[in-house]
Fold this protein.
Amino acid sequence: MAAETKQIILGSGDLYVTEYNDDIPEHAEIELEANLLGRIKGGASVEYKPSEHTVADDSGAVEETFITAEDVTFKSGVLTWNIATLNKLTAASVLSEAAGTRTLAIGGRAGRRVTKYLIRFVHTKSDGKKIRATLVGTASSGFTLAFAPDKETVVDAQFKGVSHNTSGHKLILEEEYIVA
Amino acid sequence: MIEQIYAILDGDTALKGLVSRIEPKGETDYTGDCALYEYTETGDDGAVMTARLQITAICDKQLKALAVLQRVRQLLVTNGDEELTPTITRVIANGGGHLYDSARKKHHQIIYFNITGRSDSNGS
């Protein structure tokens, strides 16, 4: 078995979210402390789910399968957050800050324009090399805020990937490895 | 994993300001304030390794022993998915206790940690 296929991945990573401005910047521009959505808890998952349509003749001699749609969903939970964090978890909202108070207005006219975000999840392997998952998405699943006396509030973060270039790419996975 | 944990504890000036020694549990004639550790690996499935760490703060005053363990928790317990080291992915405090050594007039304040990390048994 090749050395790079013997590796076992364990551990979570860092989640960066920033507003998407029609291009994907260099890693160093995305992976900034200021772009951390917050410290996450419970790990993260990226789901890629193609929808297929198969056409076959009655005898089964001719069969062709087409991909009709592809869905990408990113899910995680945010442990350290504030109101500005929640702004990135809404499809559309208005955030304002003044005199030590943050205000997030959700719904109404603000809800007509859906903001696209650049979502970057970075897992650091035990050898220090990184696995990156990048998508452009919208926070179209909303969130639930649960305040409990015996459990910390972890905000669900869910983004639905949208195509962001002329090729229609919805998810970019990148892995660094040690060159022998 | 214990080497990394010891390095974190031994390298912290705040903790070393509270206790002069951080040593593995065992027989000793040292009577000053100190912290003893006992480390046991409890599981390894080839991917995930688990361990149990006991830290005992031995001090003249119980409040000082509690302060030692508070500092140890601050150093070791992981916040959310943040990793302690590239090998140790999760540390939680789980259990503890107290006893008083009337012969030496010392408080023994104990805390247990459950440690999860990457297995070192697969050779990668």
